[in-house]
Protein 1
Amino acid sequence: MSAIQPIQRFADLPEADYVGYCWYSNESSARLDVNPRTIQESENPFVLEGMWFSLDGKTAVTYRHAGSQSFLTLVDLAQFAAAQKSPQKVLPAAGIQGIQHLTFTTLWAPVLDANCLDMPVLKPVIQVLTNLKRKA
């Protein structure tokens, strides 16, 4: 599996214990603890955004709905060395009831850069959810 892999359907995600949130088109706050493998792409209301991570820390999943397109991505976190991970950003969980804060990590990958004599340069490629803290 490549480090960042587009996925066609939620049901195609590998089996794992996922934690995260998803935001439906008709709701004013996100839902917690929705297993992404159970989401139906054709259902209405539809998911606008979702982010999950596996409890074993091996994978992360991101989902974005934009216009008539959707982007579901599986990320193999083990394929990113520590040097390719930005320090984690901890942000308050506005709009997500029951969550105190969310932790995100930006992942970087080497990309050939014409401004650097076509040498590989680390550039940000995706931001993933890597932890969340529930309110007590």
Protein 2
Amino acid sequence: MAEKQTECNPFSYLVDSFYASLPEKTADDIGTFKKDVLRGIRDSITTWIDEEIELTDRHLENARRMRERHRQDEAEDTPPSPA
């Protein structure tokens, strides 16, 4: 029984036809290669995003320390007010 095509997308049909025109093992090998490449790209992007999030957290923590140090310096430089 033939599967019902759920999309009326000509590009998708062309890609399906391309894979169908190849020997089954070759089509499977190409599909596996494409999926591996896409997974590698996804993993690289995920790693890069995680590093950027970590770096942003580090910058924010350093900024908090700098503000605190600046407040302490101001407090030390301000002479006590005469009562």
Protein 3
Amino acid sequence: MKKNNLLFCFLFIGYAAFAQTKTADSTHHKRFEKLKPFLTKFSIGLPDIHFEYCVPFKKTGNENLPYGMDKYFGVPKSETGFDFPFGNNFNFRIIAIYYKDKLGVEFYYGGFGGIVPMNDFAQYLEKKYPNHYISDDYSIMNKGKDYDFKGVQFGITYKIHLKSFIIEPKFKIGFETQYAYNYEPYVFKEIGTNNFTEYQIEERVTTRKPEHSYHAQLNVGKRITLFKRAKRPFTFEAGIKGEYIYAPYSLNVKVNEHTYGMPIVSNQFDITNAYKMYSFGAYAFYVIQKRNKKPSVK
């Protein structure tokens, strides 16, 4: 994972250096020259690098679910997020286009969510099936329950230039798919007998597809330009960010208990709720904008 992160950073830096060192008569330069009429009023923000810490809300709204599901659908643990899907939280901005370096539109592919530790759920099962062996207690304690949303996001943003800083409020709407997970059943064996019981949880997404998510974000950054006297200066923006995510969802959950030789007992119910989290971190991206004019020779 760390190697992939470093590789992406080197590729980003390499691309910037490549764009800077190309000569004026190169094909690469000519392609950039075609953007001149567009860049008189518009600037382009390329895919950004960001690193953030994602914190789900502690109150999930699932506290009163029956059959131990209040613990199974409990509070996800906090985790870090990066551009590419190295975890549940990633936020890859494909491109941003700004009009007069103020009003902008953005296009993202991202994901968010978290993993619920299974400690509390494992304790629930131990109390429910006392004097039983379990087939795979390691799986319960380490696999975890995923909240997993992935899809495209579209945003509108406005840059406020305040002296040398940029304050940028954003609002994004996401069109994600929530992934439901149906793990293999847990098998319990009663000590001293040959009685076995299977316990399985099945999930089915009942929300419209794709689901909608709503994101409020605030960036505070600074525009930095290197090689200012060059015909092709290198400009990037870096700063800190904060984001709030609200994602309504609906699941149908079925809990099956099957003691061998007996009929299956099924309990089924719906969960209508919203996944809520906030994140904070840092970001940076390369900016394509109008270049300096070639200095006149006297």
